[in-house]
Design brief:
- The chain has helices spanning 16-27, 39-48, 65-75, 102-126, 150-169, 201-212, 224-230, 232-235, 238-248, and strands at 7-11, 31-36, 53-56, 81-84, 132-137, 175-180, 220-221.
- The chain is built from nine helices and seven strands, in the order βαβαβαβαβαβαβααα.
- It has a seven-stranded parallel sheet with strand order 3-2-1-4-5-6-7, with helices on both faces.
- β5, α5 and β6 form a beta-alpha-beta unit.
- The protein has a single domain (7-253), classed as NAD(P)-binding Rossmann-like Domain (Rossmann fold, 3-Layer(aba) Sandwich), CATH 3.40.50.720.
- By secondary structure, it is an alpha/beta fold.
- The chain is globular and about 50 Å long.
Length: 254
């Protein structure tokens, strides 16, 4: 993946990991457009990063995605990088869940259907570019789930699988397909912004940018805190790590 001279769209770019990536990619000489559902958050991020652009998108609402894609490619015809970063994470107590399953369904629409729909809408445009990339942000929890957030983990595992298939299908095209799988990072997700157990956001972004600048770019962008989890099955340590992680994260405290 080339690191400058791109036109990049980042969903969920107003906060957390999306905002951190957007700022660093802008500083490297890229045109960056952030998208999200909260206009005030987008405007605050743009104000802190002169030259950045923003557009409102509720990724959960599938009926507006193709219209959004048409609008953004018309106004930004050089768009060549899509970073599917937007996501939500909800604690679910499966034994006492509500009958309407609202949290689960919103998580699936946002975390899985959202990136699939947006990728489908933008792919014809990206295929026309000389060099393009799609970066799907999954999670270390795609490899070892956190039991208190079962649907979140399931969507990230599904997005990991989708990304592998997309990469294979795009292997002879100008579209490079990458996966960024963060560990537990200090962001708003799961109220982790001040959690000392989480990786500081600034450290995570710095390590990700180092990996992205490797040549060739690794197809899976994994910081040190995720690499071991990715290989747990091969190391025959999955059960031990799964039990330890879920014992440490007590659902009753959240």
């Amino acid at each position: 993946m080339q690191m400058s001279g791109n036109t990049i769209l980042i969903t969920g770019g107003g906060t957390g990991i999306g905002r951190g990536l957007a700022g660093e990619l802008l500083r490297l000489g890229n045109e960056v457009i952030i998208a999200g559902r909260r206009r005030e958050t987008l405007e605050e991020t743009v104000a802190a990063n002169p030259g950045m652009k923003a557009i409102v998108l509720d990724i959960e609402k599938g009926d507006g995605i193709r219209e959004f894609a048409a609008r953004v490619t018309t106004s930004m015809p050089r768009l060549n990088v899509l970073i599917n970063n937007a996501g939500i994470m909800r604690v679910e107590r499966l034994g006492t869940q509500q009958e309407d399953l609202a949290d689960m369904e919103a998580t699936i629409r946002t975390n899985l259907l959202g990136p699939i729909r947006l990728t489908a809408a933008l792919l014809p445009h990206l295929l026309k570019q000389q060099a393009a990339a799609i970066v799907n942000v999954t999670s270390g929890l795609a490899f070892v789930p956190l039991a208190m957030t079962p649907t979140y983990c399931a969507t990230k595992a599904a997005l990991h699988s989708y990304t592998e298939s997309l990469r294979y299908q795009m292997r002879n095209t100008p579209v490079e397909v990458l996966e960024l799988a963060p560990p537990y990072v200090q962001t708003e997700l799961l109220n982790g912004k001040d959690d000392p157990r989480a990786m500081p956001l600034v450290d995570f972004i710095a390590e990700v940018m180092e990996i992205l600048q490797q040549q060739p770019t690794p197809k899976e962008i994994l910081v040190k805190g995720v690499m071991e989890r990715r290989n747990l099955t091969a190391l025959d340590r999955y059960e031990k790590v799964f039990e330890g992680m879920n014992a440490a994260m007590n659902i009753d405290t959240l």
